[in-house]
Amino acid sequence: MIRLPFRDGFYEVKPSKIICLGRNYAEHAKELGHEIPKEPVIFLKPPSALIGPEETIILPRKSQRVDHEVELAVIIGKKGKNIPRAKAMDHVLGYTILMDLTARDIQWEAKEKGLPWTVAKGFDTFGPIGPRVVDKRELDVNDLEIGLKVNGEVRQLSRTSKMIFKIDEIIEYVSSIMTLEKGDIIATGTPEGVGPLRHGDFVEAWIEGIGVLKEKVLAERSILC
Ligand code: MG
């Protein structure tokens, strides 16, 4: 169970699904060689990928390259289907940080073969979340610094104002396809600067006004007997 500080107590992270946006920052779309999308690109990450703050990211044996991606995560507070943009914010509880870890080599291969990204995005520990949930009324997320460091070195640094599709548009789009349940999480895409993690690394992802999400990194082969 993952519990994050929220208001005067805790929030239990228990989504029915995690919806992730791909290519939602123009510079990141470019660095991976993609056009800027005309409508949101979405995929699902399994809730079993979640880990809390100050835990351990495990680099799976099946991948030779796992990339970090820092993202602003929206937590849904009220169920809805076909939510119009103007009502979208009524369905938001608050915000946190999610690292959308990606087995990039497996994703490249999937893209080449026209296969889904489920494997590349779905390993256990590929969804660190935290360090707390901020009430939507306490934070305007339209223009916040978002960044990520590995071993103290800045790798990603941008602003949430550079998101191509904004939160209300994303909620409108996603809820036109699938019902958003209370507790669901939407990860809104990563800015440029994605790159590989290695055994022994220490990762810090931050968003202004939310905090810093810290994780260690270990290779699966180093911990299996
Ligand atoms: Mg991502």
Give me a quick take on this structure.
This protein has a single domain (2-219), classed as Fumarylacetoacetate hydrolase, domain 2 (Alpha-Beta Complex), CATH 3.90.850. Helices cover 15% and strands 40% of the residues.
Overview of the molecule:
- The protein is 15% helix and 40% strand.
- The strands form four sheets. It has a seven-stranded mixed β-sheet with strand order 4-3-14-8-9-11-5. Strands 6-17-16-12-13 form a five-stranded mixed β-sheet.
- The mean pLDDT is 96.
- The longest helix has 10 residues, at 104-113.
- It starts with a strand and ends with a helix.
- A hairpin with a 2-residue loop joins strand 12 and strand 13.
- The protein has helices spanning 26-31, 104-113, 118-122, 167-175, 220-223, and strands at residues 2-6, 9-13, 18-22, 41-45, 50-51, 56-59, 66-68, 70-76, 92-99, 102-103, 127-135, 145-150, 153-159, 185-187, 195-197, 202-207, 211-219.
- Magnesium ion is lined by residues 20, 69, 71, 100, 189-190.
For this entry, give a set of tags.
7-stranded mixed β-sheet; binds magnesium ion; alpha+beta; 15% helix; Fumarylacetoacetate hydrolase, domain 2; 225 residues; 5-stranded mixed β-sheet; globular
